[in-house]
Amino acid sequence: MIRSTSLGGNMAFVDWDEKYLLGIEQFDLHHRHLVELLNHAYDMLVAGWSDDAGIKMVLNSLAEYSAYHFESEENWMGQVEYPEKESHILEHKKFIYRWYELNKQFEDDKSYLTLEIVTFLKGWLLGHILDTDAAYVTFIKQQTSLA
Protein backbone atom coordinates (compact mmCIF):
# COMPACT_ATOMS: atom_id res chain seq x y z
CA MET A 1 0.00 0.00 0.00
CA ILE A 2 1.22 3.50 -0.76
CA ARG A 3 2.00 5.78 2.14
CA SER A 4 -0.34 8.68 2.79
CA THR A 5 2.20 10.91 4.47
CA SER A 6 4.93 12.99 2.96
CA LEU A 7 8.61 12.18 3.08
CA GLY A 8 10.53 13.23 6.13
CA GLY A 9 7.53 12.93 8.41
CA ASN A 10 5.89 16.09 7.09
CA MET A 11 2.17 16.38 6.72
CA ALA A 12 0.46 14.73 3.80
CA PHE A 13 -0.49 16.83 0.79
CA VAL A 14 -4.05 15.66 1.37
CA ASP A 15 -5.02 14.55 4.85
CA TRP A 16 -7.81 12.00 4.64
CA ASP A 17 -10.78 13.25 6.61
CA GLU A 18 -14.17 11.79 7.47
CA LYS A 19 -15.82 14.63 5.56
CA TYR A 20 -14.77 12.79 2.39
CA LEU A 21 -16.74 9.68 3.36
CA LEU A 22 -19.90 9.17 1.33
CA GLY A 23 -21.18 6.14 3.19
CA ILE A 24 -20.83 3.90 0.14
CA GLU A 25 -17.96 1.65 1.15
CA GLN A 26 -16.74 0.79 -2.36
CA PHE A 27 -16.41 4.43 -3.37
CA ASP A 28 -15.02 5.53 -0.02
CA LEU A 29 -12.24 2.96 -0.47
CA HIS A 30 -11.65 4.16 -4.05
CA HIS A 31 -11.43 7.78 -2.96
CA ARG A 32 -9.06 6.97 -0.12
CA HIS A 33 -6.79 5.06 -2.52
CA LEU A 34 -6.82 7.98 -4.97
CA VAL A 35 -5.78 10.30 -2.13
CA GLU A 36 -2.93 7.90 -1.27
CA LEU A 37 -1.75 7.90 -4.90
CA LEU A 38 -1.96 11.69 -4.99
CA ASN A 39 0.08 11.94 -1.78
CA HIS A 40 2.66 9.60 -3.30
CA ALA A 41 2.93 11.82 -6.38
CA TYR A 42 3.33 14.85 -4.13
CA ASP A 43 6.03 13.06 -2.13
CA MET A 44 7.93 12.54 -5.37
CA LEU A 45 7.57 16.21 -6.25
CA VAL A 46 8.78 17.41 -2.84
CA ALA A 47 11.72 15.01 -2.94
CA GLY A 48 12.70 16.39 -6.35
CA TRP A 49 12.55 12.92 -7.79
CA SER A 50 13.62 13.10 -11.40
CA ASP A 51 13.20 9.46 -12.36
CA ASP A 52 10.91 9.73 -15.39
CA ALA A 53 9.97 6.05 -15.26
CA GLY A 54 8.99 6.24 -11.59
CA ILE A 55 6.97 9.43 -12.04
CA LYS A 56 5.29 8.00 -15.13
CA MET A 57 4.37 4.88 -13.15
CA VAL A 58 2.66 6.97 -10.45
CA LEU A 59 0.88 9.15 -13.01
CA ASN A 60 -0.28 6.04 -14.89
CA SER A 61 -1.49 4.49 -11.62
CA LEU A 62 -3.52 7.61 -10.92
CA ALA A 63 -4.98 7.61 -14.43
CA GLU A 64 -5.77 3.90 -14.46
CA TYR A 65 -7.31 3.88 -10.99
CA SER A 66 -9.35 6.99 -11.81
CA ALA A 67 -10.70 5.27 -14.94
CA TYR A 68 -11.55 2.16 -12.90
CA HIS A 69 -13.29 4.29 -10.28
CA PHE A 70 -15.23 6.30 -12.86
CA GLU A 71 -16.43 3.15 -14.59
CA SER A 72 -17.54 1.62 -11.28
CA GLU A 73 -19.33 4.79 -10.28
CA GLU A 74 -21.03 5.20 -13.66
CA ASN A 75 -22.21 1.56 -13.67
CA TRP A 76 -23.59 1.99 -10.17
CA MET A 77 -25.39 5.21 -11.16
CA GLY A 78 -27.05 3.29 -13.99
CA GLN A 79 -28.19 0.57 -11.60
CA VAL A 80 -29.75 3.03 -9.15
CA GLU A 81 -31.18 5.14 -12.02
CA TYR A 82 -29.46 8.28 -10.82
CA PRO A 83 -31.11 11.17 -12.75
CA GLU A 84 -27.91 13.26 -12.87
CA LYS A 85 -25.82 10.43 -14.30
CA GLU A 86 -25.10 12.17 -17.61
CA SER A 87 -23.87 15.40 -16.01
CA HIS A 88 -21.76 13.36 -13.60
CA ILE A 89 -20.23 11.45 -16.52
CA LEU A 90 -19.53 14.79 -18.19
CA GLU A 91 -17.51 15.82 -15.10
CA HIS A 92 -15.51 12.62 -15.44
CA LYS A 93 -14.90 13.32 -19.14
CA LYS A 94 -13.74 16.88 -18.39
CA PHE A 95 -11.30 15.48 -15.84
CA ILE A 96 -9.98 12.90 -18.30
CA TYR A 97 -9.49 15.58 -20.95
CA ARG A 98 -7.63 17.91 -18.56
CA TRP A 99 -5.60 14.98 -17.25
CA TYR A 100 -4.66 14.10 -20.81
CA GLU A 101 -3.48 17.69 -21.40
CA LEU A 102 -1.36 17.74 -18.25
CA ASN A 103 0.08 14.32 -18.95
CA LYS A 104 0.94 15.35 -22.51
CA GLN A 105 2.68 18.43 -21.14
CA PHE A 106 4.70 16.22 -18.80
CA GLU A 107 5.54 13.85 -21.67
CA ASP A 108 6.61 16.71 -23.93
CA ASP A 109 8.78 18.40 -21.32
CA LYS A 110 10.26 15.15 -19.99
CA SER A 111 11.46 17.19 -17.08
CA TYR A 112 9.70 16.83 -13.78
CA LEU A 113 6.41 16.41 -12.04
CA THR A 114 4.94 19.86 -11.62
CA LEU A 115 3.06 21.36 -8.74
CA GLU A 116 0.39 22.29 -11.31
CA ILE A 117 -0.38 18.61 -11.89
CA VAL A 118 -0.69 17.58 -8.24
CA THR A 119 -2.57 20.79 -7.33
CA PHE A 120 -5.05 20.20 -10.15
CA LEU A 121 -5.56 16.60 -9.03
CA LYS A 122 -6.07 17.61 -5.41
CA GLY A 123 -8.56 20.36 -6.22
CA TRP A 124 -10.51 18.28 -8.67
CA LEU A 125 -10.66 15.13 -6.55
CA LEU A 126 -11.68 16.80 -3.30
CA GLY A 127 -14.15 19.11 -5.02
CA HIS A 128 -15.65 16.21 -6.93
CA ILE A 129 -16.08 14.09 -3.79
CA LEU A 130 -17.59 16.91 -1.73
CA ASP A 131 -19.90 18.27 -4.44
CA THR A 132 -20.65 16.01 -7.38
CA ASP A 133 -20.34 12.67 -5.57
CA ALA A 134 -22.16 13.99 -2.49
CA ALA A 135 -25.15 14.72 -4.74
CA TYR A 136 -25.68 11.04 -5.56
CA VAL A 137 -25.51 10.21 -1.86
CA THR A 138 -28.31 12.73 -1.24
CA PHE A 139 -30.30 11.08 -4.04
CA ILE A 140 -29.81 7.60 -2.53
CA LYS A 141 -30.85 8.82 0.92
CA GLN A 142 -34.00 10.38 -0.55
CA GLN A 143 -34.82 7.16 -2.43
CA THR A 144 -34.28 5.09 0.70
CA SER A 145 -36.52 7.32 2.81
CA LEU A 146 -39.28 7.12 0.16
CA ALA A 147 -39.14 3.31 0.04
How does the SSE layout of this entry go?
Layout: H1 25-46, H2 52-79, H3 85-109, H4 115-146
Helix pairs in contact: 1-2, 1-4, 2-3, 3-4
Structure, described:
The chain has 147 residues and is mostly helical. It has one domain (23-146): Four Helix Bundle (Hemerythrin (Met), subunit A) (Up-down Bundle). The chain is 73% helix and 0% strand. It has four helices and no strands. Helix 2 packs antiparallel against helix 3 (85-109). The chain is elongated, with a radius of gyration of 16 Å. Mean pLDDT is 84; it is low at 1-9.
Number of strands: 0
Through-space gap between termini: 39 Å
> Which architecture does the CATH hierarchy give at level 2?
Up-down Bundle
Q: Hey, roughly how much beta strand do the residues contain?
A: under 5%
**Class by SSE composition:** mainly alpha
